[in-house]
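Quick one from the shared queue. A colleague (R.T.) flagged Outer membrane lipid asymmetry maintenance protein MlaD as missing a structural entry in our internal table.

Convert sequence to structure tokens.
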Amino acid sequence: MRENKTEVAVGAIVLAAAAGFLWFILSATGGSRGTGDLTLHANFRSAEGVTVGTDIRLAGVSIGTVSALSLNPETYRAEAAFAIDDGIGIPDDSAAVVASEGLLGGTYVEIVPGGSFEMFADGALIEDTQGAVGLIQLLMKFVDREDS
């Protein structure tokens, strides 16, 4: 009987520790965020490295996540939906750029704000987009310039 109490106590401690780690991971990565107050859409020539859950950043601060990503079979462009956090207004002439944190860093979508006083409405399309630039493409351009 004493062994059962010990096993139950140890099991409870392990479950509490697991719940604590889960809470920490969700709060650190933004996984506990809601769906967002504002949904925006964008079409990219290349969304390489972008997946559902990828950060949306404005001035380096995470303001939302990519909530959906699909291929448009008619235009052959990547269509993305963004869930932007409550209370964040995005000027309606802003751009969405697929960016990288560095040579080996992760990918995120940077919102480059425009100067308009009008804000995007829920469900609006960001027309000014710049897709991902692959490392191999950059290296090939550099090599081609050196040969010329």
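The chain is about 30% helix and 30% strand.
Residues 1-32 form one domain.
Added to the table.
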